Amino acid sequence: MQIFSMVLSLLSGVALFLFGMSLMGDGLKSVAGNKLEAFLYKMTNTPLKGVALGTGVTSVIQSSSATTVMVIGFVNSGMMKLKQAIGIIMGANIGTSITGWILCLSYIKGSGGIANILSTATISAVVAVIGTLLRMACKRSVHKNIGNIMLGFSILMTGMQTMSGAVAPLKESATFTEMLTMFSNPLAGILVGILFTAVLQSASATVGVLQALSVTGLLTFASSFPIVLGIGVGAACPVLISAIGANKNGKRTALIYLLNDLFGLILWSVIFYSVNAVVHFGFMDMVMTPVYIAALNTVFRVATVIVLFPFIPKLEKLVCYLVKDSAEELEDEADFDLLEERLINYPALAIGQCHRAMNGMAKKLRKNVNRAMNLLNNYQKDKYDKVQRKEDLIDKYESRLGEYLIQLTKREMNTAQTRQVSLYLHTINDFERIGDHASYIAHMSNEMNDNHTDFSQAAWDELNIVMEAVREEINITCNAFMADDKEAALRVAPLGVVITNMCDELKLHHVERLSEGNCGLEEGTVFNDILNSFGRIAAHCASAMVALLKSGEENSDIHIHDSKIYPSNSVEFRTYFTEYSQKYDLGKNEGHVVSMEPEEVE
């Protein structure tokens, strides 16, 4: 019964410690606002700065895992490069050791006078009272967050005291002494450090438990060193879990965290125990204290970073080798490689590179619009996920191309080049908006699948005819842009008007079905949303083609307005409008229509 009570007390101390650390870290992050994130991705242009910032930020938020998860988000979104992330992760491994030094404060003792004032109990009580007053009496959120920081610190200290009190009787236990002797076996100690940290999901918590055990006076250097080696590898578990939904670079970032500690474990265990086998270190039986534990943890982490720091480029190559890009992903990155910054000083070449990269964007866009519409007739979860991934890629195209073109505007260019850059900026915006609507269509198909929403056969037949028209328009638009085919571009606006008219007519038909009871309100809302997306795709396709048609003109207005998208007074417009009106005449529809396009179609 005494053992059960001791274990329960130890676990309650761990719970208090973890809660206090979380509360303090959240409070610190709230006080800092978005400044920590801004520092992370704006001030990491060199690996050394990355290490320094990673150390500083992790010291503040008290969690290397939280810092790394944040960095994974930046790399995943493309805001930060993998090489920048490596330095921050190395710094995070150093920063997390600061917690051990903070925990040393919980072992301050005193029997009277100033010593008693500085005791842990007094400090924790004063900090807790002040924190509570700030939480209850202050109205400003910043003061409440400071109160959270103080309360978190006090709870953390209380948790440490609870853990220390729980394990104090163990110093009289022969069984416990034998167990600690077992940890002197390097392999056993390393496994304990990995498993215990993986369960707690916090390197700081494991160091705290180790410091609590050290107060028994039975923990030696030989027992604690292998556990400290294993702590870092165990702390990688929550980071690896957080990277499950990330892209390839996000997964590589998580892998860097694991490899950093894994290399440290292998390197120092091999060196230390090999040398010890020859010279037999005399400090192996040295009794560890909380301060010694904190020092050991810090020295191990700093030494690992010092050794690995020169090999950051090699680490980057290693994780890229372990997490390989597919042929399609390599093709995507090849488009971004076209945007070479050194060509900015040569506008003619840079504009040509932009067009080549935009061709890649057009290809991805065309496939994604067709892929999204396929989902309406044949929903597949993996295809839906692919639409969302490719939408993120299209957004990345828009961001990277936009930044590159904006840089070009700051260079000296002739009138034709200035016009071309402006029109390209307009085109990539249209392409990105088309991608958004494709993503929304995919989202609606996902909702329909989840809610078992279905339309009447008549509604499906009409919707599929519109889809065929939208497919033709997006295919003409992208092919015309890639081939700079202005004759084909003239077809897009009249087809867009036909699609818009069809969408309006289909909405009226659906109202009739709704009044006759052949369709429900929910189905009607979904149907209208899909048609609205079709209409917006048609408008943005026409807008992009107006930009293409204007690209060869010298004196015309480069600004494109909705009123100029449909030049309905031209002979070409009337000819093509008549052609497409007849081709997609809803009244001539006979039999069922299913609009599908193989993904392989280029």
Describe the structure in your own words.
- It is a single chain.
- The protein is 78% helix and 0% strand.
- Helix 9 (141-167) crosses helix 12 (203-214) and helix 18 (347-377) packs antiparallel against helix 19.
- It contains 26 helices and no strands.
- It starts with a helix and ends in a 19-residue tail after the last helix.
- With 602 residues, the protein is mostly helical.
- The protein is elongated, with a radius of gyration of 32 Å.
- It has helices at residues 2-32, 35-42, 47-61, 64-77, 82-95, 98-103, 113-117, 120-137, 141-167, 174-182, 186-200, 203-214, 221-242, 248-279, 290-308, 312-322, 327-337, 347-377, 381-409, 415-451, 457-483, 486-489, 492-515, 521-550, 562-565, 571-583.
- 42% of the residues are buried.
- The longest helix has 37 residues, at 415-451.
How are the secondary structure elements laid out?
Layout: H1 2-32, H2 35-42, H3 47-61, H4 64-77, H5 82-95, H6 98-103, H7 113-117, H8 120-137, H9 141-167, H10 174-182, H11 186-200, H12 203-214, H13 221-242, H14 248-279, H15 290-308, H16 312-322, H17 327-337, H18 347-377, H19 381-409, H20 415-451, H21 457-483, H22 486-489, H23 492-515, H24 521-550, H25 562-565, H26 571-583
Helix pairs in contact: 1-9, 3-5, 4-5, 4-13, 4-14, 5-14, 5-15, 5-16, 8-9, 9-12, 11-13, 12-13, 12-15, 13-14, 13-15, 14-15, 14-16, 18-19, 18-20, 18-21, 19-20, 20-24, 21-23, 21-24, 23-24, 23-26
